[in-house]
Amino acid sequence: MSDDASEVAAELPQMWQYIHPTHNSADSSDDEADEEENADVTDNDAARGGRPADYVKLKKSAPRLGQLIRFLNDMEDEDVQGLLLENDPVTRQTLLQWATLNNHFMLVEYLVKRMKRAAFSFDAESVEVVVYDRWAEMSQELPTAAEVAERQKQRENEKAKRLAERAMANSGDDVIEDEESEEEEEVEPMPEELVYDTLEDYHGELGDGGVGVVKRIGELGVYVGPRLPDGTKQGLGQTLFPSGDCYTGEYKENQRDGRGVYWWSKGGALYCGEWFRNMRHGYGRMVYPDGSRYLGRWVHGKRSGKGRYVYADGSSYDGAWVKDEKHGSGTYHLLDGSSFIGTFHHNRFVSGEWRLASGTVRYIGNFENDAPAGAGVYVHRCGLKPGTFQQEGTYSAEGKSWVPSMLKCTSRMVPHIELVVPPQPSGSTRVPMEFGAECTGRTMADLIKVANYAPLLRWVASLTSAAKDLVVGEVELKGVELRGVEVQTMRYDAADPDAITEVTILPILVDNVGKRVRPPSEAVTLKPSVTRLMVLLEAPGTEPVVLLEKSLQSASPDEHHQQSRLPAVRISEDSSVGGDVVDAVGPALRLQLASTNSMALLLPPMRCNPMQGNAEESVWMYAQEVHRETVAQLEHKLELLSAELPEASTTYVAVPLSDVTSISTDAMTAMAAANVQQRRAAQTLPRATVAPQRPPTPPPPTLEPRPELQPLYDAKARRDEAELEE
After folding, report:
1. How far apart are the C-alpha atoms of 130 and 225, rounded to whole Å?
2. Which long-range contacts (CB under 8 A, 24 or more apart) does 314-317 make?
3. How many structural domains comprise the chain?
4. What is the enclosing helix (H) or strand (E) of 370?
5. Where is the sequence biased in composition, kind Basic and acidic residues (predicted)?
6. Is 326 within 8 Å of 344 (Cβ atoms)?
7. Is 544 within a domain?
8. Between residues 644 and 481, the one the model is more confident about
9. Stretch 185-189: mean pLDDT, rounded?
10. Which of 664, 681, 698 is the last residue of a domain?
11. Are 274 and 282 in contact (CB under 8 A)?
12. What is the average pLDDT across 526-539?
C-alpha cells in the first residue's frame, strides 16, 4: 500500500477499521504474500466450479463483525454511546444505518437490544432531543390538549350561565358589564406552553416561534435527516416518535420506503429490512417481544412468501406463508426432534410426512388438527440396513387407533389418502384420492407427493367457484360436487427424481342428485405455471434484438433437440424477479432485471378451463434503449457468458425481433414476438420500460512509457565536463 493510503488507514477510528478492513495498513501490507500463498487454492476451486478466483480478495474486504462485537463488548455503555454518535468516515453513515443498509441483521439486533434508543445515535445535547426528553419527563403531569380545551369550554359555559342569570335579575347594562369584567378569568395554559416555560435556557435557540417548535416535537417527535425544499422527508434519516419508538433508514415522500430498522420501545420488538409506504414489504427480519424471530418475505405488513420463523421455545417453521399464516409447502421442526414436511393449510398441517424423533420411523399420509387421519403408511428403518419396511393402514375416524394391513418390504395395499378441498355443496371438505390403473407400482409416498404438488393445490383452490356453477365446454352444470380424484399419470423430472413435472388426474364429479357427471374431456393435466421474460434491446437507428435461451428440449423438432425460447423467470409477491437470466445476463449486460418495476406485462396468464387443466403461461417485457456499442458487443458478451456456464446447460443468444418467429419453435415465444411486432407497428406498445442505458465507460487511456532518465544524466555530465574544460 502507498504511503498516502497508510495515512488514511491510520486516521480511520478503530471501530471503523473493522468495517473497512482494507484501510488497515497491517492487513494490506500482506496482500501480495497472501495472494501468492492462495493462488493455487483459488485456481483449483474455480476449476472445480467452487468459489471464484477473487474470493480471497473478497474475504479480506469483508467486515470483521465478530471482532467488532467483541470490541464493543469490552466497552462500557457510555463509551459505546459516544462511538455510535460518530459517522463512518467512508460512507458518512452511523453504525446502525450501515448495518441496516447492508442487511447485517445480527449486528442490528445486538446494537438495539443493548443500547435501545442510544443505538439510533440521537444527540442527547441537541435542542430538539432536549425538548423531546422534557416532554417525556412531564408527560404524566401534563394535561392533554383535549382536556384543556374541554375545561375551557366548560368554564365558558358556566360563565355564560351566570351572566344570563344576572341579566335577568338586573336590568342595568352597566352593572352587567362591571360584573362581566369581574368574571374574567385567566386562560389555562396549553401543554406546550408549560413545557416551553421549563426550558428557559433554550429560549434563545428556539426563537420567537419556540412554543410552536415545542408543540411540533410533542406531536411529531424528532426527525434528523435530509428534506426536500418543501420540507418533505427524503433520503437516509432517522425519527424519534412521541411514543418512544425509533426508526432509521430510507424515506421517500415522508414515508418509510426502502431499507430501514424500526424499534418498538414498548415490548422491544424490532424489524430490520425493506419497507414500502410505511409497511413492512420485501425481505426483512422481525424480532418479536417473546423472543421469536422471522426472516423472510413480507407483503403489505404481513408474512407472505418464503420465510423462516423460529419460535420462542426453539421450534421452527421454514416454508410458505400467506397473510401471516403457514400456507403451502413447508417444514415444521419440533423440540423433541420430530418434524412435519408437507402441505400446510391455514396454519394446519394437512398432508405430508411426519418424521418421528427416533429417526427410524416416518409416517406418510393425511392429517387433521395436526394428527394423523385416514389412510397412511409407516416407513421403518431397521438398524443399519439400507432397506426399509412399509406398514400401511388406516387411522380410525377419531384418529386414536391405528389399523395396520401388513408389514412387507413392498406394500400391496392400494395407496389412498384424502385431499383437502373447498367446502362442497354437501358440506364435505375432504375427498378421497387414489392412483388409477395406469399408475401400477406407485406407492403411498408417490401419492403424497402428488397431494403436495403445487399445481394440484392451485387447481383445488380454483374449485371454490366450481362448487356451485360449473361450465364445461358449452354445458352449464348446476351444483356439481367433487367426490374423488383419480391420478392417471405422473412424471418425474429427469434431472431431479424427487420433483414432479406433470400430473394427470380424473376428477369424480356428481350432480345435485348424485348422478355421475362426465364432461367431454374428463382428464385434467396439471403443470407448473411458467412466467417468461422478453428482453428487448434497441439502439437508435437499429432493429431491436431479443434475448433467447437455448437449451435441450426433448419435444423440440430440431435434430439436436435444441430449442430457442424466451427465458423463464420467477416473480415473487413483493415484485422481485429471480431466475438464471436475472442472475447471469443481468449483471453482464447492466440490465435492471431484479424487479417488475422496470418491466411491463406483455401477455397476461393464459389459462384453460379448470376442469381441463391449469397450465398457464405469461410473458413480461423488459425494453430498454442501449448504446450502439452495446449492441455491437452483445454477441461477443453472450458467447463469453455461455462459455462460463456449466456444460450442457442453457446458453443465451441475441436474435433480431423479426427473426424470432422463424427461429423459435416455442409457441409462446412466437406469439409474444408477433404481439410485439403488431403493437409496435400500431404504436400501442411503450418503446421502453426503463430509462435508457448510459453509454459504456470508455477504457482508460494507455499510459505513455516512462522515459529513460539515465541518458539525460549522462548528457548532463558530459556537458558539465565540457564547461569545466573551457
Report:
1. 18
2. none
3. 2
4. none
5. 150-165, 715-726
6. yes
7. yes
8. 481
9. 67
10. 681
11. yes
12. 88
329 assigned to some structural domain: no
Which residue is listed with cell 453509454? 695
Q: Which pLDDT tens digit goes with each residue over 262-317?
A: 999 998 999 999 999 999 999 999 999 999 999 999 989 999 989 999 999 999 99
CB-CB neighbours of 513 under 10 Å: 6
Instruction: List the domain range (segments joined by +) for residue 552.
Output: 530-681
> By the 8 A CB rule, do 347 and 334 touch?
no
Query: Which stretches does DSSP call E strand in 129-234?
Result: 222-224
Contacts of 408 (CB under 8 A, 6+ apart): 389, 390
Distances (CA, A) of 399 to 159, 178, 371, 474: 76, 89, 7, 43
pLDDT single digits (tens) 124-140? 888 899 999 888 888 88
| pLDDT on residue 40 | 39
The rounded Cα 118 to chain-centroid distance in angstroms is 28
What is the grid cell recorded at 702? Answer: 494507455
pLDDT in tens, 77-87: 889 888 898 88
- Work out the pLDDT band at 473, boundaries 50, 70, 90: very low
Q: Give 177 or 343, the one with higher predicted confidence.
A: 343
pTM for this prediction: 0.65
Q: What CATH number does residue 597 fall under? A: 3.90.79
C-alpha angle with apex 505: 500 to 508, nearest 5 degrees? 150
Q: Which helix (H) or strand (E) holds 124?
A: none
**Grid coordinates given for 287:** 424480532
Angle made by CA atoms 179, 185, 186, in degrees to the nearest 5: 155
Would you state the pLDDT for residue 72? 92
In a domain, 570, yes or no: yes
Let me know if residue 30 belongs to a domain.
yes
Last residue of a domain, one of 17, 50, 74: 74
Largest CA distance in the chain: 134
> Rg of the Cα trace of the chain?
36
Helix/strand/coil for 570: strand
If one counts every other C-beta atom within 10 angstroms of the C-beta of residue 274, the result is 23
* 628: pLDDT strictly greater than 80: yes
Residues 672 and 676: their CA atoms lie apart, in Å, by: 6
User: b/e for 204-227, b at 16 or more Cβ within 10 A?
Assistant: eebeeebbebbbbbbeebbbbbee
